[in-house]
Prior knowledge:
The protein is of the alpha/beta class and about 375 residues long. It folds into two domains: about 1-185, 3-Layer(aba) Sandwich (Rossmann fold); about 190-374, N-(1-d-carboxylethyl)-l-norvaline Dehydrogenase, domain 2. Helices cover about 35% and strands about 20% of the residues. It contains 14 helices and 14 strands. It has helices spanning about 10-20, 60-65, 80-90, 105-115, 160-175, 185, 190-205, 225-240, 255-260, 265-270, 300, 305-320, 325-335, 365-374; strands at about 1-5, 25-30, 40-45, 50-55, 55-60, 70-75, 95-100, 120-125, 130-140, 140-145, 150-155, 175-180, 285, 290-295. Helix 3 (about 80-90) runs parallel beside helix 4 (about 105-115) and helix 7 (about 190-205) packs across helix 8. The chain is globular, with a radius of gyration of 20 Å.
Amino acid sequence: MRIAICGGGNVAHVLAGLLSQREGLEIRVLTRKPERWDESIRVLDEQDRSIIGRPRLITHQASEAIPGADLVILALPAYARAAVLTTIAPHLTGSVWVGSFPGSGGFNWLAQKALQGASANIAIFGAQRVPYISRIIHYGREVFGSAKKEGIAIASIPQNRSSEIASILEDVLQMPVNCLNNFLEITLATSNPILHPPRMYTLFHDYEAGNFWQESILFYEGWDNAASELLISMDREVHDIFARIPLDLSGISPLLKHYGVHDAQELTHKISAITSFKGIATPMLETKDGFIPDFQSRYFSEDIPFGLLILKGVAVITGTVTPMIDTVLIWAQEMMHKEYIVDGELVGKDIAATPIPQNAGIVTIDDLVLRARL
């Protein structure tokens, strides 16, 4: 099987290293900086065991990486997907699967638009979450990668081919792959877009220029009850949205159930003690006077326009009131120097650059349901 991996981040490194040492898989990497990659990629796990893989090709040319690929995996920041999809579309050939790890952030809507004119026979898939906890150690040559023991959950377009791509991915990734009920369970997944913003808000909602911290804050180990309470409130609003959509969205569990806890205090203890989250710093910039919040980090640039705003867009379609989500969004857009919401409406000057459902022509509940069932 020929697999093209698009991206140069953490997950792309792990995929390139692990899959290229597997017999029967030809791995090609499409990345902007091929000159920074070694011929071999070392993947270290949590027990310091290593696997070395050697991709067949590492290039920045889609014309070299994409033709003949059976499986194309985007492991990219959400903001980069539209451009990469447009770039690879003319080079897709034969029958090919095109998917994203993760598939949230409106990936399905972007892919349907970008690939609609391609001559290949294309099916689309996405994963609810990434298959690995990963962190680049040395760019282009060494990465930490720990496989999710529970595996991943996926959906496809067309929906009736989910079991087919699940079987393929199970063999390729060597982990359990479960099928979700529909792609909306990926688009609306309450992972990073719900997890990161409430913590950033409770840390920095009263931030003013001239405030400094003498050291960087640990994001998860320093998690507190205020963040948990806001997280729970926002998650409840999301599930209020789900209740108005006539689809089975049971593949997205309430966060208290997901973490196996009962209240904010237990959630704080659980999140702050997760081993794989140890040592992760809050996005901050170091200045000569100390540390300040980084409002351009992916916790804003990804989780707001490609996450929380999508949920807000669906809330508008379903007529669901979301006061806590609105509070975080209005604060975040001010910190980002963006304008998404004006007088409670998604009509700001920067909203056109986001993948909210309205920008994909989805304006009614019937539209949501139809596009999820294609």
